[in-house]
Amino acid sequence: MTRLSTIIATADDPRWARVVARDRTADGSFWYSVATTSVYCRPSCPSRTCNPKNVTLHATLAQARATGCRACRRCDPDAAGTDRTHPAVLRACRMIEGAEDIPALRALAAHVGLSAWHLHRLFKAATGVTPHAYATAHRHGRVRHELGRATTITDAYVAAGFGSGGRFYSDADAALGMSAGRYRDGGSREDIQFALGVSTLGHVLVASASRGVAAILLGDDPKALLTDLATRFPKARLTGDDPAYRTVVQTVIALIEEPAAGLALPLDIRGTAFQHRVWQALRAIPVGTTLTYTDLARQIGAPAAVRAVASACAANPLAVAVPCHRIVRADGGLAGYAWGVDRKRALLQCERAASIEPCSPRRSTGSRR
Ligand SMILES: [Zn+2]
To answer: Which helix H or strand E contains 247, and what residues bound it?
Structure first.
């Protein structure tokens, strides 16, 4: 059926007339996917009728899902009822969709209680593709969808359900033809630009990869900051002499002087999925407000992970831009700060004052760690 639908133009397929008519009696007998919006629908979907050139008709729900498209929110095609796909195939599809890595055929077969050969045959008959091709299409669909709406690459891969940037970028390569391969393997062959500057909080080192600011480090000793940068990006080519990059540093220093103004630069945040959850929650804390580690753990839905949350805060590579300084102890104490407790105090004082009038933090003499 998949092959047939690519040979017959959708506009000439009798099923298309039922879509145009929003025929409810057609629901459950076929589905359609729309290439331009990456969604699949049931025939009676109330959305505006789209150009049939962008539409593929599918005999089964599993075939529609095998495109990697998402279920339409308006017509809820997954709930459309009488899909006759073999339940073992449906269970295999759900397992693939829920897994971060593409499951091995043997694991899928064991999960649904069939032999690998039998599942492969049933799967291909129901979906028109192999389990591996289904999994690949599904992952690519997620990547495209999330990249279309996320503001940063990091947001996209966390939302797409990838536990690590490496896996996401390797999928993005295939899904988008992006040259993201150099992001794999801890940034090997990656170009990182950096520059040093001075703020009222002392020396600042700002470093960017091609996608955005990847590190903002604060300290008293520029040499120590450079060593820190080299440790964080051990395989990257570090370039520190581009005069054009100084404007980026100036923008970051402006943020440090006045955190309430926000940072209008893209960020390229590297970390584990858990760290990303913590850092995103940090970015949602308003200027002038503080939370405790316990609050933050609760906010990311991991109330028991207070210690892990504290470690993620300590591992934050983007001082001020990811405001880990807004986390305090339950008794109101400042707790630690990777870039020195004095800097943390100065930042918090400034932010508290900023809700009354704009300010600049006092010069701090705090030392790192
Ligand atoms: Zn729809």
So the answer is: helix 246-257
